[in-house]
Amino acid sequence: MNTRSDCIALDAQDPLRELRNLFTLPEGVNYLDGNSLGVLPRATAARVAQVVQQEWGEGLIRSWNTAGWMAQPQRVGNKIARLIGAGEGEVVAADSTSINLYKVLAAALRIAQADAPNRKVIVSERSNFPTDLYIAQSLAAQHGCTLELISADEVAPRLARGDVAVLMLTQVNYRSGRMFDMAAITAQAHAAGTLTVWDLAHSAGAVPVDLRGAKADFAIGCGYKYLNGGPGAPAFVWVHPRHTERFWQPLSGWIGHANPFSFDTAYQPAAGIGRYLCGTPAVIAMAALECGVDTLLAAEPLGGMAALRAKSLALTTLFIAQVRERLADHPLTLASPEDPALRGSQVSLACPEGGYAVMQALIARGVIGDFRAGDGSTEPDLLRFGFTPLYTQFVDVYDAVTALDDVLTSGEWREARFNQKAAVT
Ligand SMILES: *Cc1c(COP(=O)(O)O)cnc(C)c1O
Fold first, then answer.
1. What is the pTM assigned to this prediction?
2. In what order do the strands lie in the sheet with 333-334?
3. 5, 236, 281, 321: least buried by Cβ within 10 Å?
4. Do the Cβ atoms of 276 and 237 come closer than 8 Å?
5. Complete DSSP assignment for 16-31
6. Which domains does the chain have, with CATH numbers?
7. Is 268 a pocket residue for ligand 1 (Cβ < 6 Å)?
8. What does the alpha-carbon distance between residue 302 and residue 297 come to, in Å, rounded to a whole number?
9. 199 part of the active site
């Protein structure tokens, strides 16, 4: 069993340890929630101040040209492309994950309806993130389709029935951290004549993604989780070049027009991924997102996403082992895959009693994870811990398990102050 000093030794040998200095981590905080909101990069505050004071304050309207504001969606998109196996000019940063999902799912349905008009089914995972399901419900109604929800194990047999228009999956499940094999499932989908839409909210910046290698069709992802772009950061969208110009996406705003400043009355979509833009870029937020993405690109000389993945698996494997060895007397069970190949960058523990309060008590001790309620039947209440290899240390894993042991052994989570529900869990 690893002792605390073993963990300190692991940190000293960690080839990625310097990357932690790119972040401002508050004193006394053991942050294991980068899967919900990434940590503030050191560069962000000064960069945002520069955008506000110089580019906006001094440059005013001129900065659209002189500060490259209009090129931001593509510039930041090209940086994100390097993290997800996409090509140059194939990704734009814009809007929210929910809105980008609306665009790509609508485009996928249009292609499916043109190529295979009899297919009327969108398939997704029952425990997919709710916004994905809500957007799919809306589009299913508009396109005369049905949304079918299945479990992860049912995907292959469901595809094999040959009537699915679009398979919409989140690669890494937000609850369990279970990861789909994107290449294998995309191949199964294509063999069955089905298009794939992948949500990379919990995979971009967390695990190596190879969209081109997997021959995926559409993908979207989140800017404020592992990309460290800040609360409400712009999201991103990728479309395989074989599909990009087949149709418009439905949110045909002027920034996605071929020539926005012609002020034409008629919409003409831009060539390439530019047509997936809608309105004016969120310049200040985009500057913060770029700083976040740059923290991941800083790992490129150290081995990039492959090196981050190796450390992430070492962290999650250590956490699972520590929970097994040191928390065996407590009623916690592993709710994430045992097999590292199936695990994203988080570990969830099913907590049968008082999960919300246990997490509140942990947070009071400076260990920040989060709580996700179950459905009262098949899905358990979860304590979620995200392990972000850019800044999480092995000793943080050890200390988090100590704090969890203390919270459960003392029973302090039963105190009323830990049982008052806040609006955001
Ligand atoms: C976090 C997350 C989102 C977030 O969507 P927003 O539009 O940014 O609120 C969407 N989908 C999944 C799977 C997520 O994990």
1. 0.98
2. 333-334, 346-350, 382-386, 370-372
3. 5
4. yes
5. TGGGGGGB-PPTT-EE
6. 4-40+304-418 (3.90.1150.10), 68-297 (3.40.640.10)
7. no
8. 10
9. yes
Identify the three-state secondary structure at position 132.
Answer: helix
Cβ-contact 327, 408 below 8 angstroms:
yes
- 95 within ligand 1 shell (Cβ under 6 A): no
pLDDT tens string 62-74: 999 999 999 999 9
Residues 382 and 424 sit within 8 Å (Cβ to Cβ)? no
Number of residues written out for the chain: 425
Ligand 1 atom with least separation from CA of 170: 13
For 78, the enclosing helix (H) or strand (E) is helix 72-84
User: Which pLDDT band holds residue 384 (cuts at 50, 70, 90)?
Assistant: very high
Helix axes 283-297, 72-84, angle to 10 degrees: 30
Of 92, 127, 346, nearest in space to 220 by CA = 92
């979620």: which residue's tokens? Answer: 384
| Alpha carbon distance 104, 200 (integer Å) | 13
Question: What is the model's pLDDT at position 405?
Answer: 98
Which tokens hold the place of 374?
A: 């179950």
**For residue 382, which phi and psi values (nearest 5 degrees)?**
-120, 140
Closest residue by Cα to residue 283 from 233, 238, 221: 233
What element of type H or E holds 377? none
Contact 278, 106 (CB under 8 A): no
Which one is catalytic: 79, 119, 178, 225? 225
For 187-191, which contacts have Cβ atoms below 8 Å and span 24 or more sequence positions? 187/215, 188/155, 188/156, 188/159, 188/160, 189/159, 189/164, 190/215, 191/159
316 lines ligand 1 (CB under 6 A): no
Confidence of residue 422 (pLDDT cuts 50, 70, 90): confident
pLDDT digit string (tens) for 96-132? Answer: 999 999 999 999 999 999 999 999 999 999 999 999 9
Distances, alpha carbon 276 to alpha carbons 105, 134, 171, 263, 347, in Å:
12, 20, 21, 18, 34
Is 217 an active-site residue? Answer: no
- What whole-number distance in Å separates Cα of residue 298 and Cα of residue 306? 13
Q: How confident is the model at residue 377 (pLDDT cuts 50, 70, 90)?
A: confident
